[in-house]
Amino acid sequence: MRILDIALKLLLWFLITTDTSLANCLIGGAVALLLPQFGKTASARASLSHIKLWLQMLWKIVLAIPQAYVEAFEMMLKPHKIEEITVEKVEPHRTRGLIFLDIFLITFTPKTIVVDYFSDDDARGSYVVHSIRRR
To answer: End-to-end CA distance of the chain, in Å?
Structure first.
């Protein structure tokens, strides 16, 4: 799972910098290797169910890209004036890396943003999500 963590960090680096030059690739690789790992234990990172959760999350991110464009055009064409704050529970068995991807996915779409994250000791906690919608 170390490779998935490094690949995720590199992907986010390239999305943030939007530069694929050799120097930026080397800097991004160094940053990805120096940042701490997301997972807890070696056995948790290597489990098949953990890999399945990562692949499901990456698929959700791929599907969120066209959804983000649709929401952006909706917001430009039709006003969204109603704001609401909701609390969403974190799905069970989420590692810190998957929680980060959940927050990234929620914030990626223009109509929603994670305002806060509350962690519980026995469970993973909940997100406070701000969203806008039409009347």
So the answer is: 44
Q: Within the chain, what is the greatest distance between any pair of CA atoms? A: 49
d(CA 44, CA 37): 12
Neighbouring residues of 45: CB distance < 8 A, sequence distance ≥ 6: 1, 2, 37, 39, 95
Write out pLDDT tens, residues 33-55.
877 655 445 554 456 777 788 78
Helix (H, G, I), strand (E, B) or coil at 38: coil
Give one DSSP letter per residue of 79-107, joined into a string.
Answer: ---EEEEEEEEPPSS--HHHHHHHHHHHH
